[in-house]
Amino acid sequence: MISSPSDLSYFIEVASTLNISRAAERAGISQPSLSLAMQRLEESIGTPLLTRNKSGVTLTQAGKQLLAHSKHLLQIWDKVKDQALASVNEIQGSYTIGCHPSIALYSLGNFLPNLMEQHKQLNIKLIHSLSRKIVEGVISSSIDIGIVVNPIHHPDLVIRKISEDEITFWSSNSARDIQKINTNDAILICDPELLQVQSVLKKMSKIGIKFNRVITSSSLEVISMLTSSGCGVGILPSRVATLIKSQKLEKLENFPSFHDEICLLFRVENKNVKTIQAISKAITTSMSSYPTK
Q1: Which of 204, 198, 215, 206 is nearest to 182 (CA)?
Q2: What does each C-alpha distance from 103 to 106, 221, 229 come to in angstroms?
Q3: I need a labelling partner for 210 at 20 to 30 A (CA). Which of 115, 159, 178, 259 fits?
Q4: Alpha-carbon distance 177 to 183, whole Å?
Q5: Measuring CA to CA, which residue among 33, 67, 25, 29 is closest to residue 50?
Q6: At 238, which helix (H) or strand (E)?
Q7: 208 conformational bin, left if phi > 0, alpha if psi -120 to 50, beta if neither
Q8: What is the pLDDT of residue 292?
Q9: So what's the pLDDT on residue 175?
Q10: What is the residue extent of each domain of the chain?
Q11: Sign of the four-CA dihedral 205, 209, 212, 214
Q12: In this structure, which topology does domain 5-73 adopt according to CATH?
């Protein structure tokens, strides 16, 4: 059992008066309540702190040692409490933002510079992984704020849709046959592990279009680069395909697509934390104004 700061304050009062009744009166609590507080403190320390006698109490050797440090312990507690309150009421402290690397490339630069410039006591750690992993991190409290794609509802989370995206087929203006989707020579470049990619490929199969060769990559940026270089037809989110203007990728019209919801999320108990509110507002504002085409 860990004693409360109040129990320590009561102990200081007892040590000052060496009388339980008088200490209780000065502390503004009943004598039985004070006696229970001393019992909790002794159980927490693991040894008697007071010796009771007819005239009052005296401190044991352990009690004397505790008294020597008790005021310092309370000062530390007050400092920790103030810092904890400041983390709720002021924009400061260390916070972790999690998102997929591709989302990071087109989102972080739009809000993080201003946020860091405006709030000198704010420290940010970035974690990049699959959206599913980011959601798990927010649930476990290892990540404070997540920017994720198509999250599943969870009772512990506040989930806010902040933008949309479209995953579909993209090509460059290359004349290579391996980029002509209606020929047997066309090469597909994609990440087959993504559910969105699996969905559009099923739709393609239903309309009779298949690829004899596929280049797979877990990096959307690599897929974008290879598509731009004329290596094949890429399946990409619009935000990634249009991120690097010099690549000049072109969306293939009238082909199957998958619509994503980009969401911001954090734990329910953090909704009133001022820093969480400030970061969330900065992300939401930047993402909602970002063009998808």
Answers
A1: 204
A2: 6, 11, 22
A3: 259
A4: 7
A5: 67
A6: helix 238-241
A7: left
A8: 45
A9: 76
A10: 5-73, 90-293
A11: negative
A12: Arc Repressor Mutant, subunit A (1.10.10)
Encode burial over 250-272: b for 16+ CB neighbours within 10 A, e otherwise: ebbeebbbbebebbbbbbeebee
pLDDT for res 287: 86
Task: Using DSSP, state whether 24 is helix, strand or coil.
Answer: helix
Q: Name the maximum alpha-carbon separation found in the chain.
A: 103
Averages of pLDDT over each 10 residues, the chain, 293 residues:
80 92 91 92 91 90 91 84 70 92 93 94 94 95 96 95 95 86 88 93 88 93 94 94 88 92 95 92 83 47
Q: What whole-number distance in Å separates Cα of residue 15 and Cα of residue 128? A: 54
For the question of whether the overall pTM of this predicted structure is more than 0.85, the answer is no
DSSP at 53: E
Closest residue by Cα to residue 104 from 80, 134, 141: 134
Terminal Cα-to-Cα distance of the chain (whole angstroms):
59
Classify domain 90-293 at the CATH class level. Answer: alpha beta
**DSSP labels for 84-136?**
HHHHHHSS-EEEEEEE-HHHHHHHHHHHHHHHHHH-TTEEEEEEE--HHHHHH
**Which CB contacts under 8 angstroms, 24+ apart, belong to 250-254?**
250/170, 250/171, 250/172, 250/173, 251/168, 251/169, 251/170, 251/293, 252/168, 252/169, 252/170, 252/171, 252/181
Residue length of the chain: 293
